[in-house]
Amino acid sequence: MHAASRTTLDQLTESLDGALSGATDTAAAGAATGSELFEVADLLDSDRSLRTALVDQTVPADRRAALADGLLAGKVSDTTRETVSQVVKGTWSNTRDLRHGLVELGRRALLRAAHEQGHREKVATELFDVARLLEREPELEMLLADRLASGEKRRELLAKVLYGHVSAITEALALQVVGRPVARPVEDLDALCDFAAGLDGRRVARVRSAAALSEAQEQALGQKLEKIYGSAMSVHSEVDTSLLGGAVIRVGDEVIDGSTAGKLERMRRALV
């Protein structure tokens, strides 16, 4: 995202947080606003002339806002209408940044709702688990990554897989990811996990271990990683018996391989 667009988005983030905090029911307002902002982003994806008009800096900001307001009147909540009005009044470098900004604000609103409901960790864990599911099912990920299929078709497929297994907020976030992809579905879901953790000033540690980690072990590992990286950590773990023992930890692009399989491989290479 270009610098001008990022400045606009930072300002909008503060405004959105203020609007949600002032709502009578922050959780309900966040859930509704997040879903509706995704719908607005979808509308702009499908209408090139509209998104061009809304980002045109030669048109007065109030006129751009009036255009958006006319389209959304009676169709979305007041918080969403006001947010979109502020969005289109802002300075965006291009239409892509505008749509990306709407999506990021939608994600933030939904994650705020999860926090208010006491489900922040649950949603983060479910997003991690969905990403790992797609890693284990490459044919499913391939179908979800098919750009020739419509976003609606990809969402319908994932919705069938997730039905009854995740919370409504997790489902809304995951469906948005596959409906408007940036990279591979797994990569986009992992990026969303990072975004969710970042809202709480945390980084994500992805752990593959030969045996399941207990809650106490996850907490102890998180504390050790916090000392190493100087940041609070969200630890997400999965079992990988092929490691034979130990664990592999990934934080960002850095990998710490303390697995038995990794040690054996390093020994094999040393002997060649």
Automatic annotation (TrEMBL):
Subcellular location: Cell membrane; Membrane
Xref: Pfam families: OSCP
Source organism superkingdom: Bacteria
Membrane topology reported for the UniProt record: Peripheral membrane protein
Gene Ontology, cellular component aspect: plasma membrane; proton-transporting ATP synthase complex
One Gene Ontology molecular-function label: proton-transporting ATP synthase activity, rotational mechanism
UniProt keyword list: ATP synthesis, Cell membrane, CF(1), Hydrogen ion transport, Ion transport, Membrane, Transport
Xref: NCBIfam families: ATP_synt_delta (TIGR01145), PRK13430.1 (NF009967)
HAMAP family cross-referenced by the UniProt entry: ATP_synth_delta_bact
Protein name stated in the entry: ATP synthase subunit delta
Species this chain originates from: Corynebacterium glyciniphilum AJ 3170
Name of encoding gene: atpH
